[in-house]
């Protein structure tokens, strides 16, 4: 992997809510592995830059109502997973 992955408390909390849904956990893991390997996500994930308070971060849609907010720190090669949840949960 190109990037080391770090998880915030908010991300871990969001992940804990999904612990009983193995299919969604596997999908989330697959997306994180792609990001950690510096692969481009398919268009279905709607990966895009955020602005305002979240400038410097990116968001992708793992599912229509399941978002991953993350940041790649090039100098340290760290992929920081910031939040996981619906729009109302992460914003």
Q: How would you describe this protein?
A:
The structure is a single chain. With 91 residues, the chain is of the alpha+beta class. The protein is built from three helices and five strands, in the order βααββββα. It has helices at residues 9-17, 22-36, 87-90; strands at 4-7, 48-49, 58-63, 66-73, 78-85. Strands 1-5-4-3-2 form a five-stranded mixed sheet. The N and C termini lie far apart (29 Å).
Poorly predicted spans = none
Structural class: alpha+beta
Largest sheet: 5 strands, mixed
The helix content is: 25-40%
Shape: globular
Number of contiguous helices = 3
State Rg. Answer: 12 Å
Distance between the termini: 29 Å
> What order do the SSEs take from the amino end to the carboxyl end, as H and E?
EHHEEEEH
The order of strands across the largest sheet is 1-5-4-3-2
How much of the sequence lies in strands comes to 25-35%
Mean pLDDT: 88
Please provide the count of β strands. 5
């Amino acid at each position: 992997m190109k990037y080391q992955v770090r998880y915030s408390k908010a991300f871990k909390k969001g992940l804990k809510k999904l612990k009983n849904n193995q299919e969604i956990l596997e999908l989330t893991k697959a997306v994180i592995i792609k990001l950690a390997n510096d692969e481009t996500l398919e268009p279905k994930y709607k990966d895009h830059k955020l602005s305002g308070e979240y400038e410097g971060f990116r968001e992708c849609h793992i599912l229509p109502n399941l978002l991953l907010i993350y940041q790649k720190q090039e100098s340290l090669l760290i992929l920081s997973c910031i939040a996981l949840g619906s729009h109302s949960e992460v914003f």
